[in-house]
């Protein structure tokens, strides 16, 4: 009997584009109800990814110079789900009440990182406000302060490598010929299958501008201010028909502000009984394991904003041939010999 057994392994790499999407420029837009002499907007009021309020003036005696931006809204950009990171910082160079600033309603706070999404906005008279004050009665005094709001896209988790699905199908091979042949006389086999393990990676956010002096900035590296959860599981198909899902789903979670970049994803697996008696001798049976990956994107730590849907991470395809059990082959051979002897006697 001619055997056309085939063993095929196809590993389909994860298509990163389908997960990340087309992230566009992240931008905020501000309204400027007050901008006194001495204050300026180096990058304008938006749309911009870096909103700055700069105060620098030799202020006349007993005079205050005010500036504020409110409301401020996220108008574009973000990851696939519109998520961004906002980084609010301020600086003043004179101390006390001579140079002052307010950010998000707080007086001279330290750096503040907030998660947001397109459409979010902030308001309030002390949202993004500065004041230069000269308390002297006769002399001009130099006063300086700066406020900065830097916006970056939230990072999206990806698989570092495609998992490698596997089965124990080869352990049931009953013939030395190439490929896999399994005796129908076994009745059934318990097929163990798994997706294989891998790791998921979520990058940090680099280059976040923080004001540290007069026209002086440093780049801070920050974690995402949003939660992300990824899942790995598998589906078994026999001859193109889905017959079983993995018994469990492997997952990894980054909470908001988690600076860990890499988490492992354990292999998801199951065991399926293949009834060999349902096939004829010579049938070719195709076994296919598909590993799937999914990403749930959260808004901050509050709720699931969206999902990537099921993305194929890897595929394993194997094939075996159903062959007669050895006793059947012996009986067949004995019968042929008997027929040959009978034929000779008749001659």
Would you kindly provide a written description of the structure presented here, covering whatever features stand out?
7% of the residues lie in helices and 52% in strands. The longest helix is centred in the C-terminal third of the chain and has 21 residues, at 326-346. Strands 1, 17, 22, 23, 24, 27, 28 and 29 form an 8-stranded mixed beta sheet that branches. The chain is mainly beta and 347 residues long.
Taken as a percent bin, the fraction of beta residues is: over 45%
Helix fraction, binned, reads under 10%
The major beta sheet can be summarized as: 8 strands, mixed
Terminal CA distance reads 29 Å
Classify the secondary structure makeup into a structural class.
Answer: mainly beta
Mean pLDDT: 90
Number of strands: 29
Q: How many separate helices?
A: 2
Tally of discrete structural domains: 2
Low-confidence stretches: 1-23, 327-332
Whole-number radius of gyration?
34 Å
Shape: rod-shaped
């Amino acid at each position: 009997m001619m055997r056309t057994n085939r063993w095929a392994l196809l590993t389909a790499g994860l298509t990163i584009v389908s997960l990340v999407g087309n992230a566009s420029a992240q931008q905020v837009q501000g309204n400027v109800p007050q901008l006194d002499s001495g204050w300026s907007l180096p990058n304008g009021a938006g749309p911009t990814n870096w909103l700055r309020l700069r105060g620098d003036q030799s202020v006349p005696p007993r005079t205050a110079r005010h500036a504020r931006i409110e409301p401020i809204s996220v108008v574009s950009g973000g990851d696939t789900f519109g998520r961004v990171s906002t980084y609010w910082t301020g600086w003043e160079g004179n101390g006390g009440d001579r140079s002052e600033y307010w950010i998000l309603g707080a007086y001279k706070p330290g750096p503040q990182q907030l998660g947001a999404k397109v459409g979010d906005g902030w308001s309030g008279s002390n949202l993004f406000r500065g004041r230069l004050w000269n308390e002297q009665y006769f002399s001009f005094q130099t006063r300086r302060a700066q406020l900065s709001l830097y916006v970056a896209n939230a990072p999206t988790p990806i698989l570092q490598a495609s998992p490698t699905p596997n089965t124990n199908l080869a352990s049931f091979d009953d013939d030395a010929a190439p490929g896999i042949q399994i005796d129908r006389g076994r009745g059934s086999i318990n097929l163990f299958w798994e997706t294989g393990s891998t790791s998921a990676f979520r990058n940090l956010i680099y280059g976040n501008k923080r004001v540290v002096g007069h026209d002086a900035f440093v780049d801070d590296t920050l974690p995402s201010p949003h939660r992300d959860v990824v899942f790995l599981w598998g589906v078994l198909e026999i001859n193109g028909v889905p017959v079983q899902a993995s018994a469990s789903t492997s997952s990894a979670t980054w909470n908001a502000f988690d600076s860990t970049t890499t988490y492992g994803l354990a292999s998801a697996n199951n065991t399926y009984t293949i009834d060999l008696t349902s096939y004829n001798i010579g049938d070719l049976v195709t076994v296919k394991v598909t590993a799937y990956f999914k990403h749930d994107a959260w808004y901050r730590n509050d709720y699931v904003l969206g999902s990537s849907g099921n993305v194929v991470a890897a595929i394993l395809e194997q094939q075996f041939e159903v062959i007669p059990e050895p006793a059947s082959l012996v009986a067949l051979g004995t019968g042929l010999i008997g027929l040959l002897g009978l034929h000779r006697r008749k001659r």
